[in-house]
C-alpha cells in the first residue's frame, strides 16, 4: 500500500528533498518543480548525442521540458532532479505505469510476471560533466526511497538498456539489477 501518491508529492515535495555530496560538491536532490523548466531545457540541451541516444532520444528540449513540467503531480510520472547551484546535474525519471507491449510484454517473454501494483520503471540520466564522478551512485538511495514511498518494491529499467551501453550495464549490475534477456534488467528492493 502506498504511503503517499504522486499528486501528494507534487503538493508537498519535502519528503523527496535531501542534500548529497558528490565529488566534493554539495547538491540537492528533490522533486522536479514548475520553476525548473529553463534548467531542464538547459540540461536536456547540454546532453551529448551519446547521452541522448541512451536516455530519451533527440526530441525537442523545450517541448520535452514543457511536457514534464505540465505533468508534475499528474499521470504516472515522478521526476527527481539533482541540483548543482542553479543548474541540473541529473534527472531520475520514475513511472508507475507498465503499458502493454513494453515492459510487461518483454518480461513475460522471459517468464517474469511484473505486478503493476508493485513495480516502478526507473530511468536515470546524469549530465555529461557529472558522469564518472559518482552522481548516479548517489541518486540510487533517493530514488529507492521515492519508489518505496509510492508503495513499490520492484524496479525495472524504463525501456530497458541498450545492448551496447556497457558502462550502464556494469552500473546496474553493481547496484543489484539482474539481466533479463538482451535489454531488460530488474531489481527487488
Automatic annotation (TrEMBL):
Pfam families the UniProt entry points to: Acetyltransf_7 (PF13508)
Top-level lineage group: Bacteria
Keyword terms, alphabetized: Acyltransferase, Transferase
Keyword check for NADP: no
Sample GO molecular function, one term: acyltransferase activity, transferring groups other than amino-acyl groups
N-acetyltransferase domain ranges (all copies): 27-189
InterPro entries assigned: Acyl_CoA_acyltransferase (IPR016181), Bact_Acetyltransf (IPR050832), GNAT_dom (IPR000182)
Record protein name field: Acetyltransferase (GNAT) family protein
Taxonomic placement: Bacteria, Bacillati, Actinomycetota, Actinomycetes, Micromonosporales
